[in-house]
């Protein structure tokens, strides 16, 4: 089953979810979506040990 990364990114952007993880195995598929995603500036990736990346919505500066 392939993950719908566009749906995950949209859910994150709309604050429907707090975060999601991408493994090194899934990263090439994720990057194809990320490369075309219009709201990259609102989401930040945090690298973890073992090749995982956790994506979270950036906090708004007040």
UniProtKB/TrEMBL annotation:
Protein name: Uncharacterized protein
Protein source organism: Oenococcus sicerae
Domain of life: Bacteria
């Amino acid at each position: 089953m392939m993950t719908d990364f566009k749906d995950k990114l949209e859910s994150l952007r709309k604050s429907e979810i707090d975060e999601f993880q991408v493994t090194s195995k899934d990263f090439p598929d994720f990057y194809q979506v990320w490369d075309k995603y219009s709201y990259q500036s609102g989401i930040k990736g945090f690298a973890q040990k073992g090749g995982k990346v956790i994506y979270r919505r950036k906090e708004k500066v007040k």
